[in-house]
Design a protein that fits this description.
Strand content: 15-25%
Number of helices: 14
Helix content: 40-55%
CATH architecture of the largest domain: 3-Layer(aba) Sandwich
Number of strands: 16
CATH topology of the largest domain: Aminopeptidase
Distance between the termini: 31 Å
Bound molecules: zinc ion
Order of helices and strands: HHHEEEEEHEHHHEEHEEEHEHEEHEHEHH
CATH superfamily of the largest domain: Zn peptidases
Structural class: alpha/beta
Number of domains: 2
Strand order of the largest sheet: 1-10-12-11-13-16-14-15
Oligomer: single chain
């Protein structure tokens, strides 16, 4: 009995001293991020000296070259490229649209959806049919849709607290809407921008082409509201739009990877990453310049504070998240081929806003309970202690199949402003806050430290 008490006492003491050690290590990580942070300056270079970097573009290649050089300059144990073939879609230079209400022509802001086809040279003019859902297309049927432009106008549901959920709930209109409308004989598709904010900026994003391809564009929320209002008064209203985007042959591109070698388990990996490619309307600052620069910063911080990880830690700049996810697929394929054991992968692709915490996929209920119990108190002083079930990201998702035991983790920053900027001309460096960005790098470096030290 006495021995038992002594044993549990010594376990308690050991746990307390390990907690104290962890607490100090995390304090050191935050101090480095907040006093000597480099993510903001690196992001400035990426946005202002390179700018937009849609997959397959010359700018995407510039971004790869610069990222590799930057990683080399930090003196990590290993910096390398992974070859990957990516689609090369180009927007073209003509995007115009107007509502034709009798003799009145009212211009509205649109942009082609990524991967869409062009309109004929003279553009498309047709009567508009407004719908709120894909199911409505089925109800309406071919007789009501054929020869028309389908206008998907279901707004973001403001009742969701996390805006990513509202995006998810409205997203089918953009991903699948145009190809489904094409099946019913539509000649074009116009999709309400996936955002809560009411303004004049259209939001691009990928649409999936079916067998029959029709031109598809996003309309600004203000434009969508106006079109809907006019349609109520004059159901015969027509819409005109013109775009000259095109799909070019696939291009050889790269994931860019930096690594700190594990001292105990060099073939076990913890990955943190975001995507280097961006949409072409702005600088891809929040989507996902912040994510890649934070991931790199995680490695820099750990190296600078003199942390020697037990497992190998990688920062991965994935290529082609936006319109193909080829980089994410390639990373997983190589992980399986090279028999790499992946413990966990964190994705940061929801903007560089104030950290809230992390979402976990692949942890048992008991393991998540342990994580909450042991790590929440350590992250709580930094307001990054929301540790919940469910999370991941497009780039790391394929790892789940390649390495079934992996834990996928989504970095959760505050989500309220992300969709104001997402996939628009407003996604520029000026809309990123230095401190918020740095707090995010520190939160991820801290979580990686904890995973590396304790596992799940
Ligand atoms: Zn993104």
């Amino acid at each position: 009995m006495k021995l038992k008490i002594l044993l549990s006492l010594s376990i308690l003491l050991a746990a307390a001293s390990s907690q104290a050690q962890d607490s100090l290590a995390i304090r050191k990580i935050y101090d480095e991020a907040l006093v000597n942070g480099q993510a903001y300056d690196n992001l400035h270079y990426l946005c202002k000296n390179i700018g937009q970097r849609i997959s397959g573009s010359a700018n995407a290649q510039k971004a790869v070259d610069w990222s590799k050089k930057l990683m080399d300059s930090y003196g990590f144990d290993h910096v390398f490229l992974q070859e990957v073939m990516v689609p090369h879609w180009v927007r073209g230079d003509k995007e115009v649209a107007k509502i034709i209400d009798g003799s009145k022509e009212i211009p509205v802001p649109i942009c082609a959806l990524g991967m869409s086809v062009a309109t004929p040279k003279e553009g498309v003019t047709a009567q508009v049919i407004e719908v709120q859902s894909l199911a409505e297309l089925k109800t309406l049927g071919e007789s009501a849709i054929k020869g028309k432009i389908v206008f998907f106008n279901r707004p973001f549901d403001p009742r969701f607290i996390e805006t990513g959920r509202a995006y998810g709930a409205a997203g089918d209109q953009r991903f699948a809407g145009p190809s489904v409308a094409a099946k019913y004989g539509a000649v074009g598709a116009i999709v309400r921008s996936l955002t809560e904010i009411i303004d004049d900026y259209p939001h691009t994003g990928t649409t999936m082409n079916g067998d029959i391809k029709i031109p598809a564009a996003a309309i600004s929320t203000k434009g969508a509201n106006l079109l809907s209002e006019i349609l109520k008064k004059s159901p015969g209203t027509k819409f005109y739009f013109k775009q000259n985007c095109e799909q070019l042959p696939d291009v050889l591109s790269y994931n860019v990877v930096a690594e700190l070698k594990g001292s105990e388990n060099p073939n076990k990996f913890i990955t943190v990453g975001g995507h280097l490619d961006s949409w072409d309307l702005a600088e891809g600052a929040s989507d996902d310049g912040t994510g890649v620069m934070q991931s790199l910063e995680v490695l820099r911080i750990l190296k600078t504070v003199g942390y020697h990880p037990k497992n190998s830690i990688r920062a991965v700049f994935f290529m082609n998240e936006e319109n193909g996810d080829k980089g994410g697929q390639k990373y997983a394929e190589l992980a399986a081929k090279n028999k790499e054991e992946h413990i966990a992968a964190i994705e940061t692709d929801e903007g560089g806003f104030t950290p809230r915490g992390f979402g976990f996929t692949g942890l048992s209920t008991a393991a998540l309970k342990g994580v909450v119990q042991n790590w929440k108190p350590l992250l709580e002083p930094y307001d990054a202690d929301k540790l919940v079930a469910g999370g991941g990201g497009t780039d790391i998702e394929p790892l789940k199949t390649a390495v079934p035991s992996i834990v996928l983790i989504g970095y959760l920053p505050d989500s309220q402003r992300y969709f104001d900027l997402h996939h628009t001309a407003k996604d520029v460096f000026e809309n990123v806050n230095k401190r918020e960005l740095e707090l995010g790098s520190a939160a991820m470096a801290s979580l990686i430290y904890l995973i590396d030290q304790h596992g799940f």
